[in-house]
Amino acid sequence: MCRNPVPDSTCPHYSSWSSFATFSSWVTSSGTRACPPPPSASLQIDALGAAGCYRVFVDTMSGSFQHRPELDKLLDQLRPGDTLVVWRLDRLGRSIRHIIDQLHALAERGIGFRSLQETIDTTSPGGRLVFHVFAALAEFKRDLIKERTNAGLAAARARGRTGGRPSRLSADQVRTARRLYEQQDMTVAQIGDVLGVSRTTIYRALAKHAEPVAARRTDASSLRSNAS
């Protein structure tokens, strides 16, 4: 983790407004940290500093968002009135749905958010509008996926396949469940609703078929804790 010095709260010019930031530093294909870091890392640090960040939290990654302890630490330390600043939106979450959940959680805690590359600032009216547009698009995407999946299931039933709430999934349904799961725009419970089966059935099908996948929570608060 890389941190800039924290201002002394006893200083008369100290402001209670604070800013935090996170970015992913580069690692080699073998998983070892590169030394020195590439120019992009220094570019991000400089940009975050210019944006007023006095603490920079760094997670090293190799193309995976599954383990980000510094982001978790950052989210735990934020307090009402703080502003979270990221270099780019993908530093906050793995998917649009995940990012929206994170932003909702920040807003409920009275925490602002800025993304430098997308010029989003939820502390401004324009930034809040962009956030609501993102949320609407994410909702539309989920509805569209559900509509298409239901249409496919209806066509399958018309060809003589059984409907209802089966205890097991067909091969086509397993493929659909895995595709929706890996897109990470729907929770396991939502995927189960789309396919007409329980959440447990989805988990069992994912565990039994194809390659292993990372575990996933089904509620927004758990999604926040998984942003690592």
What does this structure look like?
The protein is α/β, with parallel strands linked by helices. The protein folds into two domains: about 20-130, Resolvase, N-terminal catalytic domain (Rossmann fold, 3-Layer(aba) Sandwich); about 140-225. It has eight helices and five strands, in the order E-H-E-H-E-H-E-E-H-H-H-H-H. It has helices at about 40-50, 70-75, 95-110, 125-160, 170-185, 190-195, 200-210, 220-225; strands spanning about 20-25, 55-60, 85, 110-115, 120. It has a five-stranded mixed sheet with strand order 2-1-3-4-5, sandwiched between helices. A hairpin with a 4-residue loop joins strand 4 (about 110-115) and strand 5 (about 120). It is elongated, with a radius of gyration of 21 Å. Pfam families: HTH_7, Resolvase. This is DNA-invertase hin. One of its GO terms (molecular function) is DNA strand exchange activity. Belongs to the site-specific recombinase resolvase family. Keywords: DNA integration, DNA recombination, DNA-binding.
